[in-house]
Write a structure and sequence with these properties.
Mean pLDDT of chain A: 96
Order of helices and strands of chain A: EHEEHEHEHEEHEEHEEEHEH
Oligomer: homodimer
Largest sheet of chain A: 6 strands, parallel
Low-confidence stretches of chain A: none
Structural class of chain A: alpha/beta
Radius of gyration of chain A: 21 Å
Strand content of chain A: 25-35%
Number of helices of chain A: 8
Largest interface: A-B, 70 and 70 residues
Helix content of chain A: 25-40%
Chain lengths: 284, 284
């Protein structure tokens, strides 16, 4: 299948490597946001643009009958994005797989599976240690901040500490900047530590992690305990998951299973190269 | 949906509790192996018989157009069981979900998901501590053994120790029994310890566990590390997974997605009560 990439930041670069490593894919081109996209000849387009631009490009491609995969990550807006894109996919007989990264994405699949295994109980998703893009952008927006890095540190039960490393603009006062940051809505509700550093670039690292735990009830049996951990290169995993989902989108379109789908709506075997029979023999 | 249970051992009892706890299911009856099954009025039958009897009952039910779910657990025979049952399901427009427990079953889903996240690398599934049914039966078959319990102890990288607790028959010699057991094909290849006890019943416990690890490559990025752990009541989890799969079988039949399917061929959202929209909002 021919797979094109739209947008070429961290995720786009990682997706390129994953397409090249896939035994059943051909890279159909890498396009920038502002390119003319009419020449695009692809079965699936990976939308590696900033997340806020994803819905627009997803709708454009779906209207042309081309499958898309994105890693749209604004959790609260996923249901409305899905419900708006779904009829466009059906009208044009195509498939869009949305929010296909690790959270939302593979973590969502694990959460769904654990609900099926122990329907009553509590799941906690603990993120990090790793860089939070949203909090980093919020910190950079504080007056007097030249550059920033906000690390998410898991404290368990879904509670997180924010370690915010800031490079000050010349002449700005640390205490003033710190007070403004601690009042910002992104930081006001969590334990937050602000640390002045000479170079934020020297700290940058795309490592991230997850610790997802559930204790629940299967039937009437309590104390069923589950845990999923990962320590990963963040853009590499996101790009790989998108590429695996491109395979699923292509196959679902061929079978006529049209629509906008999240990863909990896909059969995991569709993510993998090879036949169903080969994967059943190897993995079940 | 109306769900019946065939077979009423450990798994059948656990499945009954899970059906009763499900908000969208009605228990359509519990049947024993030798019952006349013609009176069965169910949308889905959970096959909780001994595993070797599963293929026969699955084919009988599929021929009557009734969905089934089983936890057939002889790994090497799953592909042939699936390929033989699949045409019966298609011919009778029904769905059978096979090998739906935790391994094979939910572990298979995790293994498939991790392959999609990091296609190159090694996955190790470490079982236990917990009772191995196959090894326990093999130990009981050794002459001079009155009762036995074989515990599986994980040593990492898929290597396991066997701790075998035996109750001797009167007049039998421990050293003779131990030597025979250590030569048995079930035990000859693993580190095995044989321990004589007064009462095997006093040790019985349905706790089990899994530690599933993968280190792999996403795109061209190495050292992506993943781990799944669980500590569970074994029959309770198996029964619950079967009941969740009953929901998926029922829905897939309604959509015309007929066939014999393993859990890696199901969309996880189909395992859960409630609408797709509700589950996307809650879990993605």
């Amino acid at each position: 299948m021919k797979v094109a990439i739209l947008g070429f930041g961290n995720i786009g670069h990682a997706a390129e490597q994953a397409v090249k490593a896939a035994p059943d894919m051909e890279l159909a081109g890498i396009f920038h946001h502002n390119d003319c996209l009419d020449c695009m000849d692809a079965d699936v387009v990976l939308l590696c643009t900033p997340t806020r631009e994803v819905p627009k490009f997803a709708a454009t491609m779906a209207a042309r009958g081309i499958c898309t995969v994105d890693s749209f990550d604004i959790h609260g807006q996923i249901p409305s994005f899905r419900s708006q894109l779904d009829p466009v996919c059906h009208a044009n007989k195509t498939v869009s797989i949305i929010s296909a990264g690790w959270d939302p994405g593979t973590d969502s699949v694990i959460r769904a599976l654990l609900m099926a295994m122990a329907p009553k109980g509590l799941t906690y998703t603990n993120f990090g240690p790793g860089r939070s893009m949203g909090h980093t952008v919020a910190a950079k927006a504080i007056p007097g901040v030249k550059n920033a890095l906000s690390m998410t540190i898991p404290l368990g039960t879904g509670i997180h500490r924010r370690m915010v490393y800031i490079e000050l603009e010349e002449g700005s006062d640390f205490k003033t900047v710190e007070a403004a940051l601690l009042k910002d809505d992104y930081f006001a509700h969590d334990e937050t530590h602000v640390i002045a550093v000479d170079s934020v670039d020297a700290l940058n690292n795309v490592a991230h992690g997850v610790n997802l735990v559930r204790s629940g009830v299967s039937g009437d049996t309590h104390n069923q305990r589950f845990e999923f951990n990962m320590e990963i290169n963040n853009p590499a995993l996101t790009g790989q998951v998108m590429v695996s989902c491109a395979r699923a989108a292509f196959r679902m379109k061929q079978r006529g299973q049209f629509g906008a789908k999240t990863m909990i709506e896909l059969a995991p075997v569709d993510l993998l190269p090879g036949s169903v029979e080969e994967n059943v023999a190897a993995l079940v």
